[in-house]
């Protein structure tokens, strides 16, 4: 198991400052985080790392984390170590942890297990679901509007991702005759596979891309930049990867959700089971827009996003389409 030394993590937590909400008199003792890959991927895993540090800085509790924890054995061993270290709230940063946590929850009744995008049930287990369809829908709308070749592409990790279907529907909502190209890497981290799909789409004249995979999205955007095309960022606000390349990003505010969950657990208000989050809860948002996006296009998309945030209605449910 590849993990950073616990002593280093505890020392790190000492030097990170902040004191917004103290957990001293509440139910949270220590928080732990399991990451499926490394924390420096500029995407999903980085967001998890930022989330656990946000808990430390806002609640003055020690936090521990381990990287590259994917196998059942590794998960079980890490939970055992966290338990021995006094952790009573564990985040598994991905859907791969849901089944393992379901197996472990009865063995550790004093720990509350939190995973993402999986199906769970039980008193001390919660799964947090990002509503990815809406993210993809707005990305597809913008891609379709900004495309000069009338060909856009989404490079998904897996076919179950709602962002992919959302992208297709959003692109066709905006322009019914748009050519939507869809490819699946079958991995979150296979950079070579994602770039192969990208080259295939590029040969088919795609000029706006949505790389919906946190382990390869940066590499794809860098190649899009080299080829003078457009991309839409995923998970994080990625305008800094290229202001003339990244039109905007579909952002998941994971650190905000981590703090919310930890605070709810600390006060005894964290609900078990499957919990769902979208634009309405302030957990999903659009990132900054590139200067290459015309003001009227930015205003057009922003208005639809605001309507959805206020009413829960996606553009195809709004009667008047401009």
UniProtKB/TrEMBL annotation:
Pfam families in alphabetical order: Bmp
Assigned GO CC terms: plasma membrane
Entry keyword Metal-binding: no
Superkingdom classification of source: Bacteria
Residue ranges of domain ABC transporter substrate-binding protein PnrA-like in the record: 30-315
KW Iron (keyword) present: no
Subcellular location: Cell membrane
Main location: membrane
Record's bilayer topology term: Lipid-anchor
Keyword entries, A-Z: Cell membrane, Lipoprotein, Membrane, Signal
Recorded family membership: Belongs to the BMP lipoprotein family.
Protein name: BMP family ABC transporter substrate-binding protein
Species of origin: Alteribacter keqinensis
Upper lineage: Bacteria, Bacillati, Bacillota, Bacilli, Bacillales
């Amino acid at each position: 198991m590849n993990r950073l030394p616990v002593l280093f993590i505890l020392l790190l937590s000492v030097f990170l400052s902040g004191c917004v909400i103290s957990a001293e008199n509440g139910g949270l003792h220590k928080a732990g985080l399991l990451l499926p890959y490394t924390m420096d991927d500029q995407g999903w895993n980085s967001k998890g790392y930022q989330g656990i540090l946000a808990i430390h800085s806002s609640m003055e509790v020690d936090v521990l984390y381990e990287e590259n924890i994917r196998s059942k054995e590794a998960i079980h061993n890490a939970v055992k170590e966290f338990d021995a270290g006094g952790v009573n709230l564990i985040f598994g940063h991905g859907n791969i942890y849901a089944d393992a946590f379901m197996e472990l929850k009865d063995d550790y009744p004093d720990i509350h297990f939190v995973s993402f995008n999986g199906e769970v049930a039980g008193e001390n287990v919660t799964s947090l679901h990002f509503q990815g369809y809406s993210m993809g829908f707005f990305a597809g709308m913008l891609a379709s509007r900004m495309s000069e070749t009338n060909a856009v592409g989404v490079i998904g990790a897996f076919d179950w991702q709602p962002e992919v279907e959302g992208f297709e529907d959003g692109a066709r909502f905006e322009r019914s005759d748009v050519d939507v190209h869809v490819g699946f890497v079958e991995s979150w981290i296979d950079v070579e596979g994602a770039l192969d799909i990208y080259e295939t789409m590029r040969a088919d004249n795609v000029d706006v891309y949505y790389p919906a995979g946190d382990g390869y999205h940066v590499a794809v955007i860098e190649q899009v930049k080299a080829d003078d095309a457009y991309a839409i960022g995923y998970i994080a606000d990625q305008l800094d990867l290229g202001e003339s390349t990244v039109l905007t990003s579909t952002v998941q505010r994971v650190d905000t959700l981590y703090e919310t969950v930890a605070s709810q657990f600390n006060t005894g208000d964290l609900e078990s089971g499957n919990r769902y989050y979208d634009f309405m809860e302030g957990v999903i948002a659009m990132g900054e827009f590139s200067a290459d996006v015309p003001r009227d296009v930015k205003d057009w998309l922003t208005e639809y996003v605001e309507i959805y945030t206020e009413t829960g209605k996606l553009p195809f449910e709004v009667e008047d389409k401009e």
